[in-house]
Structure prediction request, 135 residues.
Amino acid sequence: MQYPAKIILAWAEAINGNRDIRDWLITNGYPELGLFVFALNNKTEARQWLIDNGFPHLMALINGAEGNPNALTWLKNFGYDILEKMARVGDNDEDALIWLFQNNLPDMAKVALKIREVKNEIDANNNDMHRISPD
Prediction:
């Protein structure tokens, strides 16, 4: 995965909820990064699009951030070490975040932290929905 720095930063902003940037990514040669945002937010069609269109590593990044150990192993085995660390950051691993900074990857750390925010918000919302009221 090699993208210009401005595209990585745009990806982070799209993950953060900037719909205009997300749509720009989709229509300007980076559909995988725009659709990643939908996939991260549990849109089944986007998840399948990533797999069907040659971006299983991005789907593995999401699955790894969701705590799937098989996805982390897959990323590592196929040489996606940076994405594997990003997935771990997404799953609240502080050591992986330190690794990204120590390896001079602050833009990827920013993306990973945005993934963490979205994932943690989804988890919190799901936990709230599953609580049973004592009344």
Observations:
- The chain has a mean pLDDT of 93.
